[in-house]
Amino acid sequence: MTVPVPVAAGRARLAQVPAGLHRFGGESSCTAVIAFISDIHANLPALEAVFADIDSLGSVDGVYCLGDVVGYGPQPVECLEMVASRCKVILMGNHEHAVIFGAYGFHAPAKRAVDWTREILDSVEPLPRRKVLRQLIEGLPERHEMGDLLLVHGSPRDPVMEYVLESDLWEGSDPEKMDQIFNGFQRICLIGHTHRPGVFTTDRCFLASSEIGEGFDVSDGKYLVNVGSVGQPRDRDTRACYTLYTGDAVYFRRVAYDIAETVRRFKTVPQLEARFAERLTRGE
Asked: Model confidence over 84-99: pLDDT tens digits?
């Protein structure tokens, strides 16, 4: 796959995802192309479509999940089990944290979704399957390092809860926040949480994935990369989103899935707010 990669300084060039191995620093098993997924939110049709797209590439060595497998959506058990079977690492997201410790600070509909998710996980049969899922969620790490890559759900300062938003770059925002965040990692930090894919640069820019195309050169600087959301995109693109990393570039992949089927499954769970399903049709 060869795509044009716009660079912040304007040096457009071609970046190619290698068919063979592309080894970089860190875990020796991490070769070729790596896929990062996040914020599935119990949307099984979206997750299945993303894994099918990953499999179709043929060169992806491993998949890493940045958290929020559950929450909002109707199939938390199925999504947890699929992610556990496919991903090398799953991080703690704020929704997994809420399932374990309580949904403090969540608005009422989101809290009801968390409470329902907890009830579903606590009722899984048989008991050994339930214990495996519970141990999985309780054992999720908050951060993972791979050479000069840092993986978190939220931010380097607060790996589970903190949002890094475009508004953090606006005049009047906390002037120290982005400095502290960029000081919290070596070269590349991959995050989720906001459901808005794109790249933050050290010179206070946010480049949305829609503005830079599929690929972006990250070989010549320090970058904070939001990998997007599989199950609940909020950038006005209804397609599932995930990110590929080759060692010198990131590629944002958009995958169409059967949104109507997910909406249908939402309707079978009265505890889930209807707007959580409706927003999938708008990408909001």
From this structure: 999 999 999 999 999 9
Helix, strand, coil distribution of the chain in percent, nearest 5: 30, 20, 45
Residues 6 or more apart from 237 whose CB is under 8 A from it?
210, 254, 283
State how far the Cα of 156 lies from the Cα of 153, in Å rounded to an integer.
Answer: 9
Instruction: Give the C-alpha separation, 191 to 156, whole Å.
Output: 9
The answer to whether residue 8 is domain-embedded is no
- Identify the bridge partners of residue 206 per DSSP, sorted by sequence position: 200
**What span, in angstroms and rounded, lies between the C-alpha atoms of 50 and 35?**
10
244-to-26, 113, 124, 140, 167 alpha-carbon distances in Å: 17, 30, 33, 22, 25
Residue 61 belongs to domain with CATH number? 3.60.21.10
Three-state secondary structure call for residue 34: strand
The CA distance from 135 to 138, in Å, is: 5
Question: Are residues 206 and 169 in contact, defined by beta-carbon separation less than 8 angstroms?
Answer: yes
Helix (H) or strand (E) holding 267: none
Averaged pLDDT score across all residues of the chain? 89
Q: How far apart are CA 227 and CA 198, in angstroms?
A: 7
Structural domain that includes position 134: 30-274
Q: How many domains does the chain have?
A: 1
Give per-residue pLDDT as tens, 65-123. Answer: 999 999 999 999 999 999 999 999 999 999 999 999 999 999 999 999 999 999 999 99
Phi/psi-derived region of residue 55, left when phi > 0, alpha when psi is between -120 and 50, beta in every other case: alpha
Intra-chain end-to-end CA distance of the chain, in Å: 29
Helix residue spans in the chain (DSSP H):
44-57, 76-86, 94-101, 108-122, 127-138, 177-182, 209-212, 259-266, 274-278
Reference 207, options 2, 62, 5; nearest CA is 5
